[in-house]
Structure prediction request, 702 residues.
Amino acid sequence: MKYIDGFRNHMAAKAITEDIHDLAAKLSGDNREARIMEVCGSHTMSIARYGIRQILPDNVRLISGPGCPVCVTDAAYIDAAIELAEKGIHIATFGDMLKVPGSRRTLADARGAGGNVHICYSPLDAVKLAKDNPEEEIVFLGIGFETTVPPVISIIKKALAENLKNISVLTAFKLVPPALEALAEDKDVAVNGFLLPAHVSAIIGAEAYRGFVEKHKISSVIAGFEPLDILLGIKGLLDQLVGNRVELVNQYARVVKSGGNRIALSLIREILEPADASWRGIGTIPGSGLKLREEFSKYDAAKKFKVSTEGGTPDKRCRCGEVLRGMIFPDECPLFNTECTPLFPVGPCMVSSEGSCAAYYKYSR
Amino acid sequence: MSDVERILLGHGGGGKLSRNLIDKEIVTRFATEGPLAGLPDGASLQVGSEQLVFSTDSFVVSPLEFPGGDIGKLAVHGTVNDVSVSGAVPKWLSLALIIEEGLEISLLQRILDSIKEAADEIGVQVVTGDTKVVARGQCDKLFVNTAGIGRKIENINTGIHRIQQGDVIITSGTLGDHGMAIMAAREQLTLNNDLKSDTGSVHRLVQAAAKWPESIKFMRDPTRGGIAAVLGEIVEDQPFGIELKEEKIPYNPDARAVAEVLGIDLMHVACEGRMLLIAAPEEAANILEAWKALPEGKGAAIIGEVTGDSGRVILETQIGGRRMVDIPQGELLPRIC
Prediction:
């Protein structure tokens, strides 16, 4: 824990915060503001948990992006998972998915009504479940960004090695770089700095963003999730803005290498191939997903059980789409803290603890 | 969306969902007046010339044995603690067992020995009990219920109505150890640490603080929902709020390690042998000192104070930011990444 506390040091935070205020004052002198999007949900959560927004100058705005994998999962996907649970199939999932509303209900409701829904801490728990229950079908809910994909698809490697036929994955994987492209091209999204994700970058490598930064000319810093990492990331972005520079900076070099994690990347390429993906609240982004290659299709739960994971009908009043693109703050949605609370979420951003609305609700109402 | 038709696991999580259920279904029937009104930890009953406190709790923990304790110890401590923080000296316990067919006798023996040991140490007597066996699958190995009766300590008069701006919040030790030890044991998270449950009795802590009875405004043992739930309930609809300093809150490094990995806020996690006490500032240092002199209070610390910020619990974070502390919602769910 000493390692973590070093990155939460009060004196260091104070010094960096002072630098941030100095840089922001220079921007303010030119009547400029920093509009920084933190792309990743873990950043959103950390910013809220440590009260970072409250110590920043007024002209430094942090905007939460679409980087919560649970939040951007299509309602139809949840519906499909519930349908499978109702058929008696065992659903294995990370805990966050339990409370996500589909078109009508959540997996927690399905479990309450007798469905077999298992919370896993590791995808390997699902493999064990399959081995221990050879007569039952196990479906793992494969959602997440580049960070989560490799451990989830390791299920398939295990299943192949051990000849398990009763386990499959319902995939709705998402990729960060294509989403960044879509955000940069969206005229409604006005940001002049990206705080790039920590763990996703550890997998794909810092260089994965090079083309994006050069094409769209938006200052970008890869930052860790600890409060000092985030403050240093913000300082780095302000420094670029003040100097009118556009660079890709890797602040999180203690974990993120330029080429990423080669073993993880080759596993992804072996089992999956790029696909279009539907993002809840945003729509379809070309090439922003991953699907199982044809030779692994027997592990594709959507094919195996003939369910569709796209095209759900979420509540129309929900403004998560605008929240996810940084167009409005969560408390500008009329449902926020009225009909939509973490206990009874309407929209996906209220569900996961990483969702922008949940973070707002929890820490800064 | 808010019409829940069935009981969900979250209804038992100690957070808002639990509160909603209790408010809607229990309070309306049993607690609009009388000893249960206001939902204290124990009922204060006048019996002849004597003031007694009566409380009950059920225990369904899995696994039955975990690092630092077992369901037996927990069943004694849980009820003893509810009686104690109601300002009483625990005297008598009831013990009811619901046993699943197939439970190893040797395991049952270990748990009963553990109950006896815990009760003897505290000086409470098991005076009545019941045993039921149900068919395989109808309960999870063993469920335990205890009820306890204690004698009220003179001059202790606690309650939210006595809390004032300027009062201080004292914890008797590190927070969240029990919940994290259970989660680590249940999920077989092997983080190479020796995290143990904090299960224990707070009766001596209460009796130590009772030297300054007038100063004690409020006592509670933070179980499900952690200190966030306790403090959140205290400030609800009150003219005061609470401000905590993150750097003053004692946490066990091993509990923090598990919480960091799972993405869980330790302020939301259960203790089973800790106390929160809200005291007038004048005597807070004395109470703290008296606690620190006890083995179960050696990690005691003043973690915050009562403010004029109506209805809100605010945390000053390690890095100097400020944020709200919310009552946990339902089940504690580990995050995906």
User: Anything to note?
Assistant: The domain at 160-324 of chain B is CATH 3.90.650.10 (Phosphoribosyl-aminoimidazole Synthetase; Chain A, domain 2). The mean pLDDT of chain B is 92. Chain B has eight helices and 14 strands. Residues 158 and 217 of chain B are 5 Å apart (CA to CA).
